[in-house]
Automatic annotation (TrEMBL):
Primary location: membrane
Pfam families: Polysacc_synt_3
Name of the protein in its database record: Oligosaccharide flippase family protein
Coiled coil spans: none
Keyword terms, alphabetized: Cell membrane, Membrane, Transmembrane, Transmembrane helix
UniProt cross-references to PANTHER family, sorted A to Z: O-ANTIGEN TRANSPORTER-RELATED, PST FAMILY PREDICTED COLANIC ACID TRANSPORTER
Domain of life: Bacteria
Protein localization: Cell membrane
Topology with respect to the bilayer: Multi-pass membrane protein
Transmembrane region(s): 14-34, 46-63, 83-106, 126-146, 158-176, 182-199, 306-330, 336-356, 377-395, 401-420
Length: 448
């Protein structure tokens, strides 16, 4: 029995899931602490700052991470150094460009006296420094995923967000510091994680001298599509917040209210992120070997299993939505409880659709069709932005913003299957049966 538990603990799906659970729990705790330490407007500014930072992080690392993970599979020692060194050099160049852009725009806005939401100004001022502070651990994450070393990934992220949570607890009890000081501490904890990765030679900085222009071109040629896909995917998630922030009616308070049901929905995505992190290298390996039957089987079993896993969770969240929102947001959001409850219940429908949509995109990348995945995400993003503009500026409704999320996800599923049927003859009717088979034969997956 003890040996079986050890084997389960070492299994990559479980390890990945545990990593994401720990990080998500700490993220949830920090979210709850911040809702109680900041006013609605200041919390909305924080959410906008973090949303923009996450979006640009995906842009930066999307250019190299997916391609590095794919190409590191089976790489020899020399190519290993070339890949990490080349990836590091690309990321350093992007960092310089980001600094020029953010501080250049900030200087123009200050010179022109143009009024802008405080969250946007916070981002333009401090993100370049955050980008420097989180460079090391973000670059190292590609190595961790390629090696399927999720325990190491968990410890690095724990050093980051764990220290931030400790600070927030102290801030709530004794310090009572404001938003700006919280941003400074966030920079510091990111720097600590990055320095750790640099010292341990995980971030590729030590291999910078092995950077190769040919490999950089190879990374960028694949990465330009995956970066576009990640940008689009991030816009799908962040466009709601960004557009709400531009509204003179909803503004920062609207962002703060919308962030609560959105955060609860993010928690439902923990198993999905974990399984995609393990499924992508596996499908890529089989695709490179020409085993398309194996690729299809992994797609069916993973997407089906996660969809089945989400059904009881979504039902629970739908029924107990009011209590979950009060636990997360606290009494300050009690006056908005009916609205936030309705928004969250709409999001539970979205979570049931998300696994199949996400895995169609992962499968397109795995079979070396990132361009088709990019097209899929572009259409979804355009649909989302158009719906958000109508919802925010015409209807002035957070519920309509949430409904738009369901609609563009349905569009994504349709496009994903349309492309995949042409490429590898995917059959949607196989998903749920293979998902059931996955759980019936769970022991067969342990240790893979």
């Amino acid at each position: 029995m003890i040996q079986k538990l050890r084997n389960i603990g070492k299994e990559k799906n479980v390890s990945s899931l545990l990593t994401n659970v720990v990080i998500a729990f700490l993220g949830l705790l920090s979210f709850m602490l911040l809702t109680r330490q900041l006013s609605k407007e200041l919390f909305g500014d924080w959410v906008l700052f973090i949303t923009l930072a996450t979006f640009v992080d995906l842009l930066r690392f999307g250019l190299t991470r997916t391609s590095v993970v794919r190409l590191l599979a089976g790489a020899d020692k020399e190519r290993f150094k070339n890949l990490l060194g080349s990836s590091c050099r690309i990321n350093l160049i992007l960092l310089g460009l980001i600094c020029i852009f953010c501080w250049g725009v900030l200087g123009f806005l200050n010179y022109s006296n143009i009024s802008l939401n405080q969250g946007y100004k916070l981002f333009l001022t401090w993100y370049p420094l955050l980008a420097l502070c989180n460079l090391g651990w973000n670059t190292a994450s590609a190595l961790f995923q390629a090696e399927q070393n999720f325990n190491r990934m968990m410890f690095v992220r724990f050093a980051n967000i764990g220290l931030f949570v400790v600070f927030l607890i102290g801030n709530g009890l004794w310090f009572n510091l404001g938003l700006l000081e919280i941003v400074w501490v966030n920079l510091a904890v990111n720097l600590i994680s990055s320095l750790w990765c640099t010292i341990k030679k995980w971030d590729g900085l030590v291999f910078l001298k092995y950077a190769d222009k040919t490999i950089e071109k190879e990374l960028i040629n694949f990465g330009k599509y995956s970066m576009g896909t990640l940008i689009g995917s991030s816009l799908l998630k962040s466009a709601d917040t960004l557009i709400i922030g531009l509204s003179p009616i909803l503004g920062s308070a609207g962002i703060a209210m919308y962030a609560i049901p959105l955060k609860l929905t993010d928690l439902l995505g923990i198993p999905l992120r974990s399984f995609t992190m393990t499924a992508y290298p596996r499908m890529s390996k089989k695709a490179i070997a020409g085993d398309l039957d194996g690729v299809r089987k992994i797609f069916y079993s993973y997407s089906g299993a996660i969809t089945l896993l989400f059904i009881p969770v979504a039902i629970f969240c739908f029924v107990f939505a009011e209590y979950l929102i009060l636990i997360l947001g606290g009494d300050a959001y009690a006056d908005s409880l009916p609205l936030l409850t309705l928004v969250f219940r709409v999001f539970t429908v979205y979570t049931l659709l998300l696994p199949i949509d996400r895995f169609t995109g992962v499968l397109l990348d795995s079979i070396n069709k990132p361009k088709l995945n990019l097209y899929k995400v572009i259409f979804m993003t355009i649909a989302n932005i158009l719906i958000d503009v109508l919802a925010v500026f015409v209807f002035e409704s957070l519920v309509m913003v949430a409904v738009g999320t369901v609609l563009f996800t349905l569009l994504g599923i349709f496009l994903g299957f349309y492309f995949l049927r042409k490429e590898i003859q995917i059959q949607s009717k196989q998903i749920l049966p293979e998902g059931i088979f996955f759980f019936k034969n769970l022991n067969a997956h342990i240790g893979k």
